[in-house]
């Protein structure tokens, strides 16, 4: 039986690569588009080693309309798109807001234009819990009001959600969308053939943790310990990246089945909040590695605490996570040990 083709923008990236694996294992035919501006060729090799098959990969910027049209024309019969491709560092977005708006919003506009031209109806969008800003109450549900974002990165996700919603509801539109609001993905594939591979200095906590444990970094800096949380450090909802990837497969299938509304929003997290210090201690417990860490100044754009209410995803998508924090951290450490120093 012929596999249903799904385009995966940013498919060589951290979450995208894991989604490609889960899509293929669920019977789909993923097609990758990536410009490798924040990913490496080795992730494609890792994907193909896990799956023991070749996966089509087009090296283009999905903000380039002519290049994207050429991919749609060459591949033909695409039934949907998962749109990961975006710049994603909160701190960097504060320093380089224009680059974030040009890339994140611009690429979505191009993608939607080409999807409509080629009659590709289904879009799963990689959104973020940053759209909730600093919430008034925790945990956040999908009905929690979105607020002015704490960073340009968060604002690009909010703008993109609004654009998709407007396009879906336009008269005569054939596009349907699912907006997945991620919390904090961590960990790596159990094979340790793909994982989080930041270019340069990591912007996320877990690669900094694993690189410090591996001796690549002298110390881990925890940004702020005077937040209004039990131990003063930020609280986040940490979801294993493989669990997160599986949510995308469920979302794609839901769109193909035509169930649900024309545009839907789901939180994708564990429903649990852990502080940075709790993560550090959990990593030490899971791996037996002691971490050298210091407390630094709080970063611009960081939200004190946020974690998900996952009731809607469980009840409507049938999705729930299966991995513990410790299992996710152990997989991240296993991945780190496979990398060249």
UniProtKB/TrEMBL annotation:
The keyword NAD applies. Keywords: Carbohydrate metabolism, Isomerase, NAD. InterPro entries: NAD(P)-bd_dom, NAD(P)-bd_dom_sf, UDP_G4E. Residues 7-329 form the NAD(P)-binding domain. Its EC number is 5.1.3.2. GO terms for cellular component: cytosol. Pfam families: GDP_Man_Dehyd. It is an enzyme of class 5 (isomerase). Pathway: Carbohydrate metabolism; galactose metabolism. Belongs to the NAD(P)-dependent epimerase/dehydratase family. Homodimer. This is UDP-glucose 4-epimerase. It comes from Hymenobacter lutimineralis.
């Amino acid at each position: 039986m012929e596999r249903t083709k799904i385009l995966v923008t940013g498919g060589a990236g951290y979450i995208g690569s894991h989604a490609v694996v889960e899509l293929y294992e669920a019977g789909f035919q993923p097609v990758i588009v990536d410009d490798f501006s924040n990913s490496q060729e080795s992730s494609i090799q890792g994907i193909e080693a896990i799956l023991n098959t070749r996966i089509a990969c087009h090296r283009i910027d999905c903000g380039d309309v002519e290049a994207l049209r050429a991919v749609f024309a060459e591949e033909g019969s695409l039934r949907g798109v998962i749109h990961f491709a975006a710049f994603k560092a909160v701190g960097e977005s504060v320093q380089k807001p224009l680059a974030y708006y040009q890339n994140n919003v611009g690429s979505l506009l191009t993608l939607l234009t080409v999807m409509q031209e080629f009659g590709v109806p289904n879009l799963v969008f990689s959104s973020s819990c940053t759209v909730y800003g600093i919430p008034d109450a925790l945990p956040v549900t999908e009905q929690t009001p979105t607020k002015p974002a704490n960073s340009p990165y968060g604002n690009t996700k909010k703008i993109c959600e609004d654009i998709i919603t407007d396009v879906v509801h336009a008269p005569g539109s054939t596009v349907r969308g699912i907006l997945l609001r991620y919390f904090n993905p961590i960990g790596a594939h159990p094979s340790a053939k793909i994982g989080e591979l930041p270019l340069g200095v990591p912007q996320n906590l877990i690669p900094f943790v694993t690189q410090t444990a591996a001796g690549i970094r002298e110390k881990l800096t925890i940004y702020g310990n005077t937040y209004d949380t039990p131990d003063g450090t930020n609280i986040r909802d940490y979801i294993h990246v493989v669990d997160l990837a599986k949510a995308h497969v469920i979302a794609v299938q839901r769109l193909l089945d035509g169930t649900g509304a024309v545009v839907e929003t789901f939180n994708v997290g564990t429903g649990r909040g852990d502080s940075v210090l709790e993560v550090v201690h959990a990593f030490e417990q899971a791996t037996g590695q002691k971490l050298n860490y210091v407390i630094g100044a709080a970063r611009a754009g960081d939200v004190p605490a946020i974690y998900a209410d996952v009731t809607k995803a469980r009840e409507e998508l049938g999705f729930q996570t299966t991995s513990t924090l410790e299992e996710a951290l152990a997989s991240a450490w296993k991945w780190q040990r496979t990398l060249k120093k």
